[in-house]
Specification:
alpha/beta, Rossmann fold, Sc_DH/Rdtase_CS, SDR_fam, D-beta-hydroxybutyrate dehydrogenase, EC 1.1.1.30, 3-hydroxybutyrate dehydrogenase activity
Length: about 260
């Protein structure tokens, strides 16, 4: 599956899932635009390292995904956006009646509204090119729920709904929109939580992973960023040209329960 000649914009992509997706798309030949809210030499060096490793064009554009105008400006600054991967997201855990309003607003803005703004800016470019792929990184929590994650669950359900509407509005064009719904993914952020969780519960690493972190993931194995990236490559390929408006669960059987 080659993506030579295509340009992908991946939000929230200087680490974790977003970076894994960007690397796999670049490996398949796509030029990539990395993004986060920071603007450091390390961010730009990361883009250059991808360009050097995979022989593609790669650059970093800073944009605050909590700001709708900044989301749209990211797409305009990218210039070309054949493949849009909406990945940016944050999390906060609290009971509904104790959930801080500012945290709710931030999660809805970054996890859901940003995808609306970037999609709205990208679709005219895709239509002008006669081809496009919108890939939204939702979550198993876009299909099911957990307590104390009201904003995250609401946002991810919203992303799944936005995906379906985008697909219907582009159904007669060579543009598709799909959502990937991961379960727990082994990212640096999750890896950093393991030692503290081991100490909290007095468990060894393997027990913490199986019984705490992956309690709801029947496979008892993390998904990897490479697997998510590979799924994005597939969705951008000709093999998935008639897949649109759907969700792909990469959750080790979580949503089969």
């Amino acid at each position: 599956m080659t993506l030579n000649g295509k340009t992908a914009v991946i939000t929230g992509s200087n680490s974790g899932i977003g970076l894994g997706v960007a690397r796999e798309l670049a490996k398949a030949g796509a030029d990539v635009v990395l993004n986060s809210f920071t603007d450091t030499p390390e961010d730009h060096a990361l883009a250059q390292s991808i360009a050097d490793e995979f022989g593609v064009k790669a650059r970093y554009i800073s944009a605050d995904m909590s700001n709708g105008e900044a989301c749209r400006a990211l797409i305009e600054q990218a210039g070309v956006c054949d493949i849009l991967v909406n990945n940016a997201g944050i999390q906060h855990v609290a009971a509904i009646d104790e959930f801080p309003t500012d945290k709710w607003d931030a999660i809805i803005a970054i996890n859901m509204s940003s995808a609306f703004h970037t999609t709205a800016a990208a679709l005219p470019k895709m239509r002008a090119a006669g081809w496009g792929r919108v890939i939204n990184i939702a979550s198993a929590h876009g299909l099911t729920a957990s307590p104390f994650k009201s904003a995250y669950v609401a946002a991810k359900h919203g992303v799944v709904g936005l995906t379906k509407v985008t697909a219907l509005e582009t159904a007669e064009e060579d543009i598709t929109a799909n959502a990937i719904c991961p379960g727990y993914v082994l990212t640096p952020l999750v890896e950093a939580q393991i030692p503290d969780t081991m100490e909290k519960y007095g468990m060894d690493r393997e027990t913490v992973i199986r019984e705490v972190l992956l309690e709801r993931q029947p496979s008892k194995a993390f998904a990897t960023v490479e697997q998510l990236g590979g799924t994005c490559v597939f969705l951008a390929s000709d093999a998935a040209a008639q897949m649109t408006g759907t969700t792909l669960s990469i959750d080790g059987g979580w949503t089969a329960l």
